[in-house]
Amino acid sequence: xxAYRVTIGLEVHVQLKTxxxxxxxxxxxxxxxxxxxxxxxxLGYPGSLPVMNREAIRLTVTSGLMxxxxxxxFSKFDRKNYFYPDMPKxxxxxxxxxxxxxxxxxxxxxxxxxxxxxxxxxxxxxxVAKNLHYASWSGxxxxxxxxxxxxxxxxxxxxxxxxxxxxLLALRQILVYAxxxxxxxxxxxxxxxxxxxxxxxxQKELGTKAEIKNMNTFKGVFAAxxxxxxxxTGVVRDGGKIIQxxxxxxxxxxxxxxxxxxxxxxxxxxxxxxxxxxxxLPESLLAQWKATLPELPAQxxxxxxxxxxxxxxxxxxxxxxxxxxxxxxxxxxLSSNPKAVSNWVMTDVLRTLTGKAIPxxxxxxxxxxxxxxxxxxxxxxxxxxxxxxxFAIMLADGGRAKDIVAARGLAxxxxxxxxxxxVDQAIAENAKSAEDYRKGKAAALKFLxxxxxxxxxxxxxxxxxxxxxxxKLSN
Length: 475
What we know:
Elements (H helix, E strand, L loop, with lengths): L3 E12 L38 H13 L3 E2 L2 E2 L2 E4 L9 E4 L6 E2 L2 E6 L2 E14 L3 E4 L4 E4 L6 E7 L6 H18 L11 E11 L9 E6 L2 H20 L7 E6 L4 E7 L9 E2 L6 E2 L2 H8 L6 H12 L3 H8 L2 H12 L4 H19 L10 H12 L5 H14 L3 H8 L7 H14 L1 H8 L4 H13 L6 H13 L1
Parallel strand pairs: 13-14
Antiparallel strand pairs: 1-11, 1-12, 2-6, 3-17, 4-5, 4-16, 6-8, 7-8, 8-11, 9-10, 12-13, 14-15
Helix pairs in contact: 2-3, 5-6, 7-8, 7-9, 9-10, 12-14, 12-15, 13-14, 14-15
């Protein structure tokens, strides 16, 4: 049976984080009633003229700089003509032969193997309206029409669904770090068109591609690619031919379906947008924008390891989301033990966020308060069990850790005389367990230590209890 090589390229559409649309002053806020954020410009009324959004240009260039692209000092806008109801003026303002950004790439790792996925271009355009389909009628919401959109076109460098998934995750991470977009898939901030083809192993020429439109989940992209690879392989092996077409993904059925034959560039009849001047980016302006770039996620991971002495695994988890990394770093700077802070964030904090299904920006315990709690545990003012009880109280009621410990009498008892008294009581009340330990049953010691912790209401220093209990029972 012949082997086939898979080639995958992605076109990622990202809504930019601006207050107004690309060519008018309408709001970009998500969730407004349909057709309330509209005006003559984004509705395509005759005689209305576009005005370029400077901030959108800056954000697209920032994305290019973060991704290692060459910034085109001279770019222009073009009209992409097509006749769908989602663009009432029957064309979309986009960029064709002179995009803002060229080249660049995204570093990924799949199964421990690093790869760099090249980027062909990043161009600026306006988003289209949203078609809404119901059982007996359809509608169009033009609130989205005209929202600033950048399209990031990858090179056909990916060969597996896993690589495509990793590319999308890494790309999203970089864009969120750069602050250019929220990349909220549920709100449609980030969408993806997938191009995929197969060819016999050894053939240099790429196969005929199919495009899967408007994917809005990364898992969906993975599943659609797995299906499409199997479909195309089956067609070719049965003697059929792949046609260039646009397909849609049905998540419920787990299949792709043909929508239309694929257009080529000449079908859109591109020509320069006559109502907009070209974009000229002087080197002085680019230098100014470069100076404001944040560190890349990979750079932050390396710095966390270097500055805070935490393992690479910890740094990878903490830097995965920018807001989580910000939270950790604020707390770590206030702590004498950044590793202990890392443990708390990766366990208790992230578990709470997952349970409540909230982002860390809505977490009720600020990083300064967590650092104080970690400090109490590190100084042995409270033991680990009590620290988690205090964490739960802070989570429910707020307040400072020190105040909670003082008000509720939760301070750890480390006075040897006081602990010895409780140890003696536990031995006297559990003579059989004490004798079992003397006869070699190690588990009995844990039971006796637990009894001391019960009698002390969890406040005894566990380390001191264990040492003292072992010493007394060894005599």
